[in-house]
Specification:
The complex is a heterodimer of chains A (312) and B (658).
Chain A lengths: L1 E8 L5 E2 H11 L7 E7 L7 E6 L3 H6 L3 H18 L3 E7 L4 E7 L4 H9 L5 E6 L2 E7 L2 H7 L6 E2 L1 E7 L14 E2 L7 E8 L2 H10 L9 H14 L4 H11 L2 E8 L3 E6 L8 E4 L3 E5 L2 H5 L16 E5 L1
Antiparallel strand pairs in A: 1-10, 1-16, 2-9, 3-8, 3-10, 4-6, 4-7, 5-6, 11-12, 12-13, 13-14, 14-17, 15-16
Chain B lengths: L1 E4 L5 H13 L4 E4 L16 E5 L14 E4 L15 E4 L12 E7 L13 E6 L15 E4 L15 E4 L10 E4 L3 H13 L9 E5 L30 H13 L4 E2 L13 E3 L10 H4 L6 E3 L8 E3 L3 E3 L9 H14 L3 E2 L7 H6 L3 E5 L8 H4 L4 E5 L11 E2 L6 H7 L7 E2 L10 H14 L6 E6 L3 H11 L3 E5 L8 E2 H6 L4 H14 L7 E5 L5 H10 L3 E4 L1 H6 L22 H4 L4 H25 L13 E3 L2 H7 L6 H6 L4 H9 L1
Parallel strand pairs in B: 1-2, 2-3, 3-4, 4-5, 5-6, 6-7, 7-8, 8-9, 16-26, 17-18, 18-19, 19-22, 22-23, 23-25, 25-26
Antiparallel strand pairs in B: 9-11, 10-11, 12-24, 13-27, 14-15, 20-21
Classes of the chains: A alpha+beta (312), B alpha/beta (658).
Chain lengths: 312, 658
């Protein structure tokens, strides 16, 4: 019930990936008109983390009692806790009235910091990383990109997702991309269903991982990050997932410097791939890749069970 | 040659222009296609459409006689369901190239994606490069030529047809085998390749069906498969019917099959009553003539809606499960009563089209009998996802019913135990369904309503998908809906009751603030006008009746519908049995039954105090059982059970005496 897309510029080339991903996702709007999510990978500054967080949801802003005051209070609380933990916030930007983007320097236990901030009622951390910035909200790609000022976001690679919601619209937590808490810079988008979700989730929970939703896509993010944490390369982690995760799926994973795609053994979910010497584009439909390449290009469907990884 | 530039023309406008030019015999060139979907869909004139670039999903789909040349790549389902005509793809094709073709020639010069040629019936699908996973999956006929390599499971579950592979075959699918190729086959292939300028001199490996799974191995002994109950209310746990069931399974080694729907007791409309006493109404026809029963279905996006004389349709039932005579009688009765008939799976009959004023054409996963010409003469289109009797499973038609005539209209081999696929080849999620719906709209020029038929399962999610995907109406079928053949365990255990279905649907639509523009047609165990009014009061816009119509038209409910030797000529394709069916008489019986519904619906509407049946609402209902109250949220009023109970014979005598 969604469209997914990914792109990566090879060899350290950077581009306006904010606009590129917006165009790709806008071309997939028919697959998921309700909400849109972006995971954009910028170059980042040495030793500086980028924090994206929300203190309320878009829907709350319309209906919540006294919400505008609460938003200010919650943000102040985030500031206090960052300071308490010794984080040095170097920049603060308001993306919207309820969503913010901070730069900070920090030498301590990042997981503890994240948990401490998320402990504040109504606060959700979308992403923390040196390159990754994750944005998801209600509306199509053009609306979300406009709202969060994504045009002109320069970086090396990105993944994104358009979603058709059947659960409550307010529940943007169930929207992609998923950030693999608490691992830096790992994000996932996915199209399909996992059938061994609960078994695998229990395995990962026993290993101490936290799940924010009941969405199977989040499991892929945590699964891949867990394998990487245990020393797997991204590609071998993803190859293993083809055997261990059951169901129909295609998914894309991004890390600070890589983009990977995996397709299940039934090849039941669409994925079109374009690869040149300098660029790789992937999407649920070719029309998305075409939206950023007006010229004729060669595309193909990856095979069933195929895993591919590219480096920025 | 005229040129259409897709960079500033919408697909709908472009397709309209293509059709207009085609009527004048003009060829068309499409520039800047940019992998847009549904290019050239619905075309039925023999022109050539040249696409200067890449096409998206369903390029050339649902067409007849036209030729398409795609310079570059094609997305999913290129050439979907084409009868005659051709598509040539210069580059690669995505998944399910040549799906459900019925005679076309599809040539992909590059590689093709997975499940190429799925459920194809006739024609040739040729790939110059390599074919991915499951080429020829569930094919019923025709020829696939792969010049390069073929990946895993070639010909998986194919029923007939041939697959010729030039390169390596990674693995064969279920029930397939490699056989020697005949000399004339090679000559024909070479001639084909030459025609499309494909240069190949090598050998071929020929893959065909091995014939081990086309028929059930052991026939089930004839025993009236009467439903049996094992419930907390019965102490006779291992009763004779349960024993018989076990013995028969011991003999045949598989599940048993029967017709009809679930028979176990579940909360239903009988567990709901009207809040007001409606027993006193003695409505004469002249008193009821001003009660509005007129119902329209499918006007959500400006298509011409079905216009029904009352909130009743005939449920989808196939020519196949039912005999031709019954389909004609149903169509006639629908016209006489001003309601709609539905083709069900398996194609449209000319007589059925002629008899019915309003006919819904149904599209199923196997695309049996599905074609653009009949789509374009239908009054509404319905895509079948599942049915209440067996959600998630495909249809079954036993060999006895797969006669040459029936096989021809469906495009399948004669005399196989036909098991329709459980999934659509090109709809594997709500996202694909959006594009499929658009293809249907293009093929029918956005003029007829397009609905979705769903069995009640996860209704709360499904109904939201139907709404968001943009369907004009939903036909939702509960557990009590009947089928021509299904496993007994599935019938009793898989679906959810009609009552739960309607409530979940209404709740789901409310959760997304859907309003009431998408019409909800409820079916599954509707037996009289009382049920119809209760359904409407619960929130449905219309109902449909299948089993009760068939019973009105002569069915004796022996439940052996699957066997093919129906004693009254209804569920049969055997001419001798069908001869017992009197179309004139039975169509009148059905018509009179429908008129009894009309009278009852009007009488109750009046008794409830309304002049329009669409004004009935939840306030008019109470629940008689805790279960029904729990499902529907209606107030639990067990006392209504006593006061509304019909009098027994003795009570009636007492009353008369005293």
């Amino acid at each position: 019930m969604c469209g997914i897309a990914g792109l990566i510029w090879k060899g350290g080339v950077t581009s306006d990936i904010g606009s590129e991903m917006t165009q790709m996702l806008q071309a997939l709007k028919h697959r998921g008109p309700d909400s849109t999510g972006f995971a954009l990978y910028g170059k980042g500054e040495e030793g500086v983390y980028v924090l994206r967080f929300k203190v309320a949801e878009q829907e709350d802003m319309k209906t919540g009692f006294d919400i505008h005051k609460q938003v200010i209070e919650r943000k102040a609380m985030v500031d206090t806790r960052l300071e308490e933990m010794g984080a040095d916030v170097t920049a603060r930007e308001d993306a919207t009235e309820y969503a913010f983007r901070y730069h900070f320097k920090f030498g301590g236990d990042l997981k503890r910091l994240i948990d401490f901030i998320e402990d504040i009622e109504g606060v959700e951390i979308l992403s923390v990383g040196k390159g990754l910035e994750l944005i998801k909200d209600l509306g199509d790609a053009a609306i979300v990109a406009e709202q969060y000022g994504l045009k002109g976001f320069v970086g090396t690679h990105a993944i994104g997702h358009t979603r058709m919601a059947t659960e409550s619209d307010v529940d943007i937590r169930s929207a992609h991309p998923y950030w693999a808490y608490p691992f830096n810079d790992v994000s996932v988008v996915h199209n399909g269903q996992l059938t061994n979700y609960w078994t695998k989730r229990r395995d990962l929970e026993r290993r101490g991982h936290r799940f924010m939703s009941n969405c199977d896509s989040e499991l892929i993010a945590v699964y891949v990050a867990d394998r990487i944490d245990q020393g797997d390369e991204l590609e071998s982690a993803m190859s293993r997932s083809i055997d261990e995760l059951d169901g129909v799926f295609t998914y894309l994973v991004a890390t600070s410097d890589q983009l990977g795609m995996a397709k299940d053994v039934m090849a039941a979910k669409p994925m079109v791939l374009y690869e040149s010497d300098e660029f790789v584009g992937l999407a649920s439909e070719e029309v998305a890749i075409r939206s950023i390449f007006p010229r004729e290009i060669d595309t193909w469907d990856p095979y069933q069970g195929e895993v591919k990884v590219w480096a920025a | 040659m005229v040129t259409i530039d897709l960079s500033h023309t919408s697909i709908t406008d472009a397709n309209q222009q293509i059709r207009d030019w085609a009527r004048d015999g003009q060829d068309v060139e499409i520039i800047n296609p940019d992998a847009r979907h549904n290019i050239g869909v619905g075309l039925v004139d023999p022109i050539t459409v040249r696409i200067k670039g890449s096409a998206g999903y369903f390029c050339g789909g649902l067409s007849d006689s036209a030729h398409y040349e795609i310079e570059h790549n094609a997305g999913w389902a290129v050439g979907d369901n084409i009868y005659k005509g051709s598509v040539v793809v210069g580059g690669n094709a995505g998944a399910i190239a040549g799906v459900a073709i019925r005679g076309a020639e599809i040539v992909v010069r590059g590689n093709m994606g997975s499940r190429a040629g799925q459920v194809m019936k006739a024609g040739t699908l040729c790939c110059g490069g390599n074919a991915a996973f499951m080429a020829g999956y569930m094919m019923y006929g025709g020829r696939i030529i792969i010049l390069g390599d073929a990946a895993e499971k070639v010909g998986q579950d194919m029923s007939a047809g041939e697959i010729f592979v030039g390169g390596n075959i990674k693995s064969l699918g279920n029930d397939t085998m490699i056989v020697d190729m005949e000399a004339h086959e090679r000559d024909e292939i070479m001639a084909f390749l030459e025609r499309y300028k494909l240069n190949y001199r090598g050998d071929f490996t020929k893959v065909v069906n091995a014939g081990k799974k086309l028929r059930y191995a052991n026939a089930e002994p004839r025993s009236r498969p009467q439903p049996f109950f094992v419930s907390s209310k019965s102490s006779n746990y291992w009763n004779p019917k349960v024993q018989e069931d076990i013995w028969i399974k011991g003999e045949v080694g598989r599940y048993r099959i029967r017709g009809y729907g679930a028979s176990k007791p579940v909360p239903h409309l009988n567990d709901i009553a009207f809040a007001k006493d409606v027993s006193g109404v003695a409505a004469r026809p002249e008193e009821l003539k001003d009660i509005n029963l007129k119902t329209t279905v499918g006007g959500r996006f400006g298509a011409k809606p079905l216009s029904l004389s009352m909130p009743v349709m005939i449920a989808p039932m196939s020519f196949g499960a039912l005999s031709r005579s019954v389909k004609i009688a149903l169509a006639r009765a629908s016209r006489l009563s001003g309601i709609s008939e539905n083709t069900g799976e398996g194609g449209m009959l000319d007589e059925q089209r002629a008899e019915a004023d309003q006919l819904i054409f149904q599209c199923l996963s196997g695309r049996l009998g599905w074609n653009v010409k009949d789509m374009q003469r239908a009054d509404a289109i319905e895509i079948y996802i599942s049915q209440g009797a067996k959600p998630g499973l495909g249809g079954q038609l036993m060999a006895k019913k797969v006669t040459p005539e029936l096989a021809a209209i469906r495009g399948i081999p004669v005399g196989i135990d036909l098991r329709s696929p459980s999934r659509h080849p090109d709809v594997l999620g709500a996202d694909d369904l959006v594009i499929k719906l658009q293809e249907f709209r293009e093929a029918t020029f956005h003029k007829v309503p397009i609905g979705i038929k769903m069995g009640a399962g996860r209704v709360n999610d499904d109904i939201k998908i139907a709404y968001k995907d943009g369907f004009d109406f939903v036909e939702l079928d509960g557990l009590q809906g009947s089928t021509g053949a299904a496993s007994t365990e599935v019938l009793e255990n898989v679906g959810i009751p009609t009552l739960s279905g309607v409530q979940e649907a209404i709740d789901g639509l409310a959760e997304i603030d859907a309003g009431d523009d998408m019409d909800l047609v409820m079916m599954g165990g509707i037996k009289d006008g009382v049920d119809v009014v209760k359904m409407l009061a619960l929130g449905a816009d219309c109902t449909s009746v299948g089993t009760s119509a068939i019973i009105a038209g002569g069915c004796i409910a022996c439940m052996q519908c699957h066997v093919g030797t129906c004693p009254v000529g209804i569920a049969t394709q055997d001419p001798e049995h069908e001869a017992r069916y009197d179309i004139d008489r039975q169509s009148m019986n059905m018509h009179r039954y429908f008129e009894s519904l009309r009278w009852q619906i009007a009488a109750i509407t009046k008794a409830l105090g309304y002049d329009d049946v669409h004004k009935v609402n939840r306030g008019d209902l109470v629940a008689l059982t805790p279960e029904a109250a729990d499902i529907t949220g209606l107030p639990f009023r067990p006392e209504h059970r006593e006061t509304r109970r019909p009098l027994t014979g003795l009570e009636l005598l007492d009353r008369q005496a005293g």
